[in-house]
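User: Hey, quick favor. My workstation is busy. Could you predict this chain's structure for me?
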Amino acid sequence: MAGDASLFYDRFDNRRRIIGRLVAITPVRIGSGGGIPEPGAVDNPVIRDAYGRPFIPGSSFKGVWRTFAEQVLGQLANGDRGCCDPLSEPCLSTKSVKELKKEHGKNLQALAQAIYEQLCPACRLFGSPHFAGRVRVRDLLVIESSWPGFYEIRPGVAIDRDKRTSLTSRKYETEAVPAGTAFTFEAIVENATEEEWQDLLLTLFPFIRGELPIGGSTGRGLGRVRLENVKVASVTVSNLRQFLIGGWESISTEEMKDVCRASELNPGGGENV
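Assistant: No problem, here it is.
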């Protein structure tokens, strides 16, 4: 399947949509980054949309997902080749790509195949500078009925690491979204091989069991989440016309447990699968 030209992006082969609810088991903190603080404002506010509501950027969820995939997929891959470190030792360098371009010239299909074959399992799924990944994660928007309309404020104080004492002059406040708040989850998987699809499902199970934290201050107990009510819709050539006319609403969804059964995967009876 890896060599099938239809599984690149010049032709449509399949598209899958994974939807669900990401529920905060403990308070969750996704920081808003820089900016000039206003007088009286919280030192470390959470990221908000234009209406002041919390949300989780799709890149934040995808980053945690990819990091976990890099840890485990290399152990599951056939052969001795595992996943790369995309920052220090990428599986395919810019120099290697230039050499491949010289070798294959204007034969773009052969060039794409050569690049794909040298990528590690994580880069094939989540992308690299030289290959568009299979997975796109939408921003996770808050489900307003689950959000109480306010944020938790957690006080903190800086620690002198040498004296092992607190620095009372350096107090700060951290903002977090309260536990119980839920966010919409949607991921689109494009033209994945069956092996890639199984890899993706395997790396999603820990989110369903609530084992992978997200956001900041996870070492202080924040950020534990659980993915619930996971469903999958699939578009292939056989129902492509139906999808183009009616969109995702016209495509039936399957429960996660049924998708796992069809892919010959057993998630171990997780309560939310």
